[in-house]
Amino acid sequence: FSRGQEPAGDEKDRRLDQVRDDSDRALTTNTGVRVDDTDNSLSAGERGPTLMEDFHFREKVTHFDHERIPERVVHARGAGAYGYFQVYESLAHYTRADFLTDPQLRTPVFVRFSTVAGSRGSSDTVRDVRGFATKFYTREGNYDLVGNNMPVFFIQDGIKFPDFVHAVKPEPHNEIPQAQSAHDTLWDFVGLQPETLHMMMWLMSDRAVPRSYRMMQGFGVHTFRLVDERGDGTFVKFHWTPLLGTHSLVWDETQKIGGKDPDFNRRDLWEAIEQGQYPEYELGVQLIPESREFDFDVDLLDPTKLIPEEDVPVTPVGKMVLDRNPDNFFAETEQIAFHTANVVPGIDFTNDPLLQARNFSYLDTQLIRLGGPNFQQLPVNRPVAEVSNNQRDGFNQHTLHRGRTSYFPNSLGSGCPYLGEAPYSHYQERVDGATIRKRSESFADHYSQATLFLNSLSGWERAHLTSAFQFELGKCATMAVRERVVEHLDAVDHTLARAVAQGIGVAPPATEQAPNHGRSSPALSQANSRTDTV
Ligand code: HEM
């Protein structure tokens, strides 16, 4: 932490005590024994076999054999940077979160930008959603805002996430195609799950091909909750706005750049920071008093919908500056573990069913991706706040816990932490209801906000979106799937549906449908009967 003008990363740097430069040290094994030769393995005579007793050879190759860890199941390709966040004015009226209430305080952050569908070695300039994940190393513990560059999501309930991701990733038998948006399985899913449509409009727009991570918005997507000192809550939507403005590539550029420099966005971020042109983003909030929870056409718990800024303006509340590149990609950018459930006092969840699923999924996947339950001890994940509890042992345990006890409560008095002051306490929301698999009526309207988004585009943006639909859906080989998607598009906008249909050899919808909002297309009822009921 730092106040005023001191560098914000100092405290975090100090904790990254394993950063090292070995250039002036003698070469040793991992047990610290100096090595006499690292080019020639030990052999029995000049032409004999390599000897098992060459422990340096065996250790060196074994370590190499184990260098790879599983890539993230989604968002595998990313680039990250350190920086700091500073709030403009205290938000104490809404939240007790320390880092949002002290305008003098610079809180260290690490941000990881990512593509979603591609593997770790895939290209940067593909048509895809971009991740925008921020870890705030606050004095009260780590807070993660794990967002995307689009304000809504494809599905409403996290139980569909495995299906959705299986549809997005390359097909399992041949791992083709690598391009996220140009294949049958994705469009099949879209046609059968029309709740994806609003997000698909964003995905076919220029937002899906950002020029630079420095010129990209970020959104928390879900409605979260701020909680003040008294325990009162306010709904909140988080927005990041780049001070350089939001800029995209055009499709033709993405193709050429992708061929020449698959690291285009990653390189741009790295070089800008090396040159001292630090990316800056303003944090904005849409604040909704609890009394207004039901004042909107949409349910605040529905992550496929946004709250229009005309209804609830975005208030700028602070600024983030990214001013330091990581020292080691693997140790930091690869091993960082973001999790929506990493919250601090003053920030809480809502019952958005997508968010609730995420609160389970991230920790679960990190337990395997990062080799067991001690990954918070990795330097990039380690909080600057003190950690003390009775969790013990497990793979990769680096902490030496002193004392005789590791249980609570105990009266023997050595080693066991006590319950301290100002702890995290969950918002006391009243919940009531039968156990059902059903959401409120407005979850069924898959079209209104898709139309709203389309109508917000300028002429050329709309032209880009239309050609993106033609290009991507035109890559789908199954005509029935193309037709089904066009039928849905007709419920969004007749002119768009006709233009797309004409571009991809599908019979254009004849007449404009009656406004279809709030229900699924009649022609689709059969396909949707299993999936589109709420
Ligand atoms: C990873 C965003 C929905 C599961 C990520 C990352 C981002 C992100 C930014 C990359 C984090 C990083 O850089 O390390 C979002 C957003 C969502 C969403 C904005 C919806 C609003 C979901 C859902 C699930 C899920 C519904 C599961 C039910 C995962 C998993 C990872 C991931 C397993 C990999 C995490 C890791 O290996 O560390 N997500 N996601 N996400 N997401 Fe999501």
From TrEMBL:
User: Where does this protein have compositionally biased stretches of type Polar residues?
Assistant: 518-529
Q: Which residues form a coiled coil?
A: none
Q: What molecular function terms (GO) are annotated for this protein? A: catalase activity; heme binding; metal ion binding
Chain segments carrying region Disordered = 1-48, 508-529
State its Enzyme Commission number(s). 1.11.1.6
GO BP annotations of the record are: hydrogen peroxide catabolic process; response to oxidative stress
Q: Name one GO cellular component term.
A: cytosol
Keywords, A to Z, come to: Heme, Hydrogen peroxide, Iron, Metal-binding, Oxidoreductase, Peroxidase
Return the Basic and acidic residues bias intervals: 9-25
Write down the chemical reaction(s) this protein catalyses: 2 H2O2 = O2 + 2 H2O
Q: What does this protein do?
A: Decomposes hydrogen peroxide into water and oxygen; serves to protect cells from the toxic effects of hydrogen peroxide.
Q: What is this protein called?
A: Catalase
Covalent cross-link site, 3'-histidyl-3-tyrosine (His-Tyr): 339-362
Q: Out of the domains of life, which is the source?
A: Bacteria
Query: What family does the entry list?
Result: Belongs to the catalase family. HPII subfamily.
Which sites bind heme?
72, 112, 161, 358, 362, 369
Q: Which cofactor does it need?
A: heme
- The Catalase core domain, residue ranges: 28-416
The kind of enzyme this is, by top-level EC class, is oxidoreductase
Q: Which residues of the full protein are shown?
A: 4 to 537 of 703
**Positions annotated as active site in the UniProt record:** 75, 148
